[in-house]
Specification:
single chain, 290 residues, alpha+beta, ten-stranded mixed beta sheet, 23% strand
Length: 290
């Protein structure tokens, strides 16, 4: 008999993921080796995935190996549980439903056929699993993506920042309008503002705003998500602060080339919520958002 080990099938344990998302997860599996677990490697993931076609899970380790994890109680600070919802209908916004209580550190709703949002998911997981640094949403695009940053205290300052950036970089009226709608939505959700950042790489242009929320997250996450989803962003992300004295990060991203509503049934292609992922502490306290 041959001593050769049987070759591992490329999509073994990952067939439930569709289209571009499946390829992205294969790349994560290859790059993270023993720090990646699907339902084949983890009894916890297998049980969480039972009797559901709407959501699937993956378990990651920020260092070392995933190890044997059969219950959520066995997870340590080195584990990150991801819950993934793949688009079921034409409108992803209608599928944004929170599950409470939720053991997942990263919850993602996405269009699995969209290469931009699946690429962003790869970058996000890679940065979140970087055990040597605190996690920051500003790092989840390509290197050097932050073009401009400014400390802000209210909605007026945020809107002025967007309009100045629009003039400087020649944004279209459509792009500027989407950014302003994001600022308006956050002005209703934030108790105080810290900073605003214009981010862009070869795929995305967007905004990242940091501030203290009026509502308690993640308990009041559903309302927050619904308000943000009204702006016509391609991808939205919330990094909930694990420290009550820290700011929450909110990001909205649009493709370099905007799609027409006439040819795109649902502009929202991805929504990411992060909870209890390492964050740099923010002690800055500013005035109420206008």
């Amino acid at each position: 008999m041959s001593d050769e080990k049987p070759k591992k099938k490329r999509f073994e344990g990952l067939i439930q993921f569709k289209e571009a998302l499946r390829q992205t997860i294969v790349c994560l599996q290859a790059s993270m080796e023993d720090r990646f677990a699907s339902s084949l490697q983890s009894e916890l993931v297998r049980r969480l995935d039972e009797n559901t076609e709407q959501m699937h899970h993956l378990l990651f380790a920020t260092s070392g190996t995933v190890g044997k994890v059969d219950e959520t109680q066995q997870m340590t600070d080195q584990h990150l549980l991801a819950r993934i919802y793949q688009q079921q209908s034409e409108d992803l916004k209608a599928e944004l439903i929170c599950t409470q209580p939720d053991p997942a550190h990263i919850t993602v709703w996405l269009d699995p056929a969209d290469p931009l949002v699946t690429s962003y998911f790869f970058r996000l997981i890679s940065m979140a699993c970087n055990g040597t640094e605190a996690f920051d949403l500003k790092d989840c695009l390509a290197w050097g993506s932050v073009l401009r940053s400014q400390a802000i205290q209210d909605r007026a300052a945020a809107e002025a920042f967007v309009k100045n950036c629009s003039t400087q970089y020649g944004f279209s009226w459509d792009r500027t309008g989407i950014m302003l709608s994001f600022v308006q939505a956050l002005s209703e959700l934030l108790q105080s503002c810290d900073s605003i950042h214009l981010v862009a790489d070869g795929s995305y242009v967007g905004l990242l705003i940091e501030g203290r929320t009026k509502a308690s997250l993640p308990q009041d996450l559903q309302t927050t998500m619904e308000k943000l989803a009204k702006c016509d962003a391609h991808t939205l992300a919330i990094n909930c602060a694990s420290d009550p004295n820290a700011s929450t990060q909110f990001a909205m991203l649009m493709p370099i080339r905007l799609q027409s509503k006439a040819v795109c049934a649902s502009l929202l292609k991805g929504f990411v919520v992060l909870n209890n992922v390492r964050r740099k502490s923010k002690t800055q306290k500013n005035k109420l958002a206008g």
